[in-house]
Write a structure and sequence with these properties.
The complex is a heterodimer of chains A (396) and B (401). Chain A is α/β, with parallel strands linked by helices and 396 residues long. Chain A contains 16 helices and 16 strands. Chain A has helices spanning 45-51, 60-65, 69-74, 78-82, 94-100, 126-136, 155-174, 193-205, 222-235, 250-258, 268-274, 306-310, 313-319, 324-350, 354-365, 373-382, and strands spanning 4-11, 14-20, 25-28, 30-33, 55-58, 87-90, 105-106, 111-114, 121-124, 140-142, 182-187, 210-213, 242-244, 263-266, 277-280, 283-286. Chain A has an eight-stranded parallel β-sheet with strand order 4-14-13-12-11-10-6-5. In chain A, helix 10 links the parallel strand 13 and strand 14. In chain A, helix 7 packs parallel to helix 8 (193-205). Chain B is α/β, with parallel strands linked by helices and 401 residues long. Chain B folds into two domains: 2-270, TIM Barrel; 279-400, no CATH class. The relative contact order of chain B is 0.13. Classes of the chains: A alpha/beta (396), B alpha/beta (401). Bound molecules: zinc ion (ZN) (2 copies). Residues 323-324, 327, 329, 331-332, 358, 361 of chain B line the site of one zinc ion. Chain B: InterPro entries: QTRTD1 (IPR028592), Queuine_tRNA-ribosyltrfase (IPR050852), TGT-like_sf (IPR036511), tRNA_ribo_trans-like (IPR002616).
Chain lengths: 396, 401
């Protein structure tokens, strides 16, 4: 195990921790921006440090194709290759294949897929995924799991869960660098609490450095989503980090943190920036909208970032979706927003004012008091009283 | 704006000077104006811009025609002008030039006596002097160039003469406009005349009679040959007063810049760096070698033409050295050729960001070396030695090919 996870503060299920990885001492809860190809689109590594990024996610599938894991290894690992001194996490590559390639098929051996280079059938086994991730050299590597859409039901879910458990042993056996890289197991089991429970127990028996909750953020309804998170966080060990994969929106992160999750990743902040959307406390701001053309206010009046300190909405409006600079500046702001959210979650938990933070977050996002029911339900389980920001229905 | 000359090359027309704007902005010339899109270098955000040498990187060109859509002139004006909306430091200097050779291209066939036509992202637009002055008075640049009827070198004699007539009329329209009186920026009178020496001279003499703070030599880089330039530039330069700054657009290659400097040009705006960056090229010609130091920091890479390398080339796949060992730019201090090569392979925007930083840094260094050579009385030697090295390297490349 190459990490330390020290809880600095709690509020009911929520926790704030000092999370020491080989390359960086992080603070949780934390959001990890996705740097698919060894770069976060449009930002330099020094800008990412300025913004406060702690861990960047790299996609194994993409990196294995170009520049190849062998080359990254030969040149000293991904940290050195992209000149990122802080922590890195790589996924297993399986999810990317299943989601990007039509012809991916999962068997007991591994994920078979058609090579995007020459069309030949290829196989990604758990052993191979770990070997590739060992070459890339991230602080955290992910086990190859059998991914199924949460919207699928029936025996396939059960098969995938048991296969994920069988594969974890193959991953552990293949892992050559446990002293410098942390292998996280992934909880599967769809929306079925019984299957999720079996999977959690199975993984916890293996005493892994950390655990991820997988198979979510795939189109399931929000009530099912948070219930799976709540169930898993309740039964995962207290002293290990918990990572909710593919999440997400600021609201989801606040809810999951209240339920006891620690880490998140999503392409959303940078992808939405490229389409001209800014993350703001009120929700989102669409900079492409005509109304922005003569709006002299900053993107987010409360934001301290380089972009909000220097630019008006009007100026960003003429850049977005037309010039590279538009997505550079909005990605910068959006990631700054996510990092600020992570810091606020951490400090409000440590300083014992987490409920106040959650309430003020919800008030800004839902000024009418129309907090979605699933959020109210989740907060009840999390033991956070949000009644002050939910208006009761008018009795007409 | 104040302009002071401080040194002349012995032999030739090269000169070194200082361009002063306000109390805290002074730029040494010959100088490069950074090309911008909507007021910012294409890929360099302001926090990264501050890593480039100061004050060299504080002089920027922009085209008012980039703001034909979206934000209104009224809003730009109310916010305090372009410098404010582009979020740059107040000590930077903005120079407005209608043509930018990237997205605002002169379209001489559609220009008529009322105004100049341009191909822009918002379609073909006819800009009259009054429209232009509205833009200038709202954007409040430190310097601005008068509207010109720019034509390529191959147009008929008649069209060329018309272009001179119109450009002079439009200069008068610009400077006598009511809006000019509330425009504080220094005006540079545009000089056209295509490839006809007499027309170049006539235009320059007419513009020199007007109340302008400097001169903008327009219509270059539009099809004329590099060999006919010295005579054309000579005809212009001898017709305008020595004490005022001279700017040119369209000379970008290092040899072309040296040619312009030798003719007596002080300010250069060109899209060379932008074009190089898009093509994956990094400038690598040695800066120290020429009469300055004996140490040669130049590369001898395969695939190089002696001035630049193409980072898309597969030979850089495993190259863990920076673009230039001796370069102090952010890119060379932090990244390898192998990484930038990868970024180009996977079409990641960071490739252009890193390359534009390096190329801008390097090119500003080239201008610094030029200024030093002029001040030390070695410009002609420097120019000859640069051209010779270049010729030898092309010869060597041809032999090894
Ligand atoms: Zn901001
Ligand atoms: Zn450099």
């Amino acid at each position: 195990m190459a990490l330390r996870f020290e809880i600095l503060g709690r509020f009911n299920r929520a926790r704030a921790a000092r999370f020491t990885l080989p390359h960086f001492v992080c603070q949780t809860p934390l959001f990890m921006p996705v740097g698919t190809q060894g770069t976060i689109k449009g930002l330099t590594t020094s800008q990412l440090e300025d913004i406060g990024c702690q861990i960047i996610l790299g996609n194994t599938y993409h990196l294995a194709l170009r520049p190849t894991s062998e080359l990254i290894d030969e040149l000293g690992g991904l940290h050195k290759f992209m000149n990122w001194p802080r922590a890195l996490l790589t996924d297993s590559g399986g999810f990317q294949m299943v989601s990007l390639l039509h012809l991916a098929d999962i068997t007991e051996k591994g994920v078979t897929f058609q090579s995007p280079v020459d069309g030949k059938p290829m196989l990604l086994t758990p052993e191979e995924s770990i070997q590739i991730q060992n070459r890339i050299g991230a602080d955290i590597i992910m086990a190859l799991d059998d991914v199924v859409k949460t919207t699928i039901t029936g025996p396939r879910i059960e098969e995938a869960m048991y296969r994920t458990l069988r594969w974890i042993d193959r991953c552990i056996a293949a892992h050559k660098k446990p002293h410098v890289q942390n292998l996280f197991g992934i909880v599967q089991g769809g929306l079925d609490p019984v299957l999720r429970d079996i999977c959690v127990k199975g993984l916890v028996e293996r005493n892994l450095p950390g655990y991820a909750i997988g198979g979510l953020a795939g189109g399931e309804d929000k009530d099912s989503f948070w219930r799976v998170v709540a169930q898993c966080t309740a039964s995962l060990p207290e002293d290990k980090p918990r990572y909710v994969m593919g999440v997400g929106y600021p609201l989801d992160i606040v809810v999951c943190s209240a339920l006891g999750a620690d880490m998140y990743d999503c392409v959303y902040p940078t992808r939405t920036a490229r389409f001209g959307t800014a993350l703001v406390p009120e929700g989102v701001l669409k900079l492409k909208h005509k109304a922005m053309a003569d709006d002299t206010r900053p993107v987010d009046l409360t934001c301290e970032c380089m972009v909000c300190k220097n630019y008006s909405r009007a100026y960003i409006h003429i850049l977005v979706t037309k010039d590279a600079m538009g997505s550079q500046l909005l990605s910068y702001h959006n990631l700054f927003y996510m990092m600020k959210l992570s810091r606020d979650l951490h400090s409000s938990i440590v300083e014992g004012r987490f409920p106040e933070f959650v309430c003020s977050f919800l008030q800004k996002m839902f000024p009418e008091g129309d907090v979605p029911q699933w959020v109210c339900n989740a907060m009840e389980v999390a033991g956070i009283d949000i009644s002050s920001c939910c208006t009761p229905l008018p009795s007409s | 704006m104040k302009f002071r000359l401080k040194a002349f090359s012995n032999g030739g027309g090269a000169r070194a000077g200082v361009l002063q704007l306000g109390s805290n902005c002074s730029i040494e010339t010959p100088a490069l104006l950074l090309t911008t899109i909507k007021g910012l270098p294409a890929f360099i955000s302001p926090d990264l811009l501050s890593s480039l040498p100061t004050p060299d990187s504080r002089l920027l060109q922009f085209s008012p025609l980039h703001f034909l859509e979206g934000i209104s002139l009224k809003t730009i004006s109310e916010m305090g002008g372009l410098k404010h909306i582009a979020g740059l430091r107040q000590d930077c200097i903005f120079n407005a030039v209608p043509r930018d050779s990237i997205i605002s291209l002169p379209d001489f066939q559609s220009s008529n006596k009322t105004g100049a036509s341009f191909d822009t992202p918002s379609g073909r637009r006819l800009i009259r002097p009054i429209d232009y002055m509205e833009m200038i008075s709202s954007m409040k640049p430190d310097m601005w160039v008068s509207l010109a009827d720019e034509v390529p070198s191959w147009v008929s004699e008649k069209r060329n003469t018309t272009s001179v007539d119109r450009t002079i009329t439009w200069l008068d329209d610009c400077i006598t406009s009511n809006l000019a009186s509330i425009t504080f920026g220094a005006v540079f009178g545009s000089i056209v005349g295509g490839s006809r020496i007499e027309e170049r001279r006539r235009c320059a003499q007419e513009v020199a009679k007007r109340n302008v703070s400097g001169f903008y030599i327009a219509g270059f880089g539009l099809g004329e040959s590099i060999d006919e330039r010295p005579d054309l530039l000579g005809a212009v330069i001898e017709s305008i007063p020595e004490e005022k700054p001279r700017q040119i657009s369209g000379l970008g290659l290092p040899e072309e810049v040296l040619q312009g400097v030798a003719a007596g040009i002080d300010l250069f705006d060109s899209t060379y760096i932008y074009q190089l960056t898009l093509g994956g090229f990094a400038l690598t010609f040695p800066l120290k070698k020429f009469g300055m130091h004996s140490s040669d920091d130049g590369p001898s890479d395969i695939g190089s033409d002696g001035t630049k390398i193409n980072l898309k080339a597969t030979i850089y796949r495993k190259d863990t050295s920076p673009i230039l060992e001796s370069c102090q730019c952010y890119t060379c201090q932090n990244h390898t050729k192998a990484y930038i090569n990868h970024l180009f392979n996977v079409h990641e925007m960071l490739a252009q960001i890193l390359l534009e930083i390096h190329n801008t840094h390097h090119y500003l260094g080239f201008f610094r070396v030029i200024r030093k050579a002029i001040v030390e009385g070695k410009f002609e030697h420097f120019r000859q030695s640069y051209i010779e090295t270049r010729r030898n390297s092309i010869y060597a490349t041809a032999l090894s090919a």
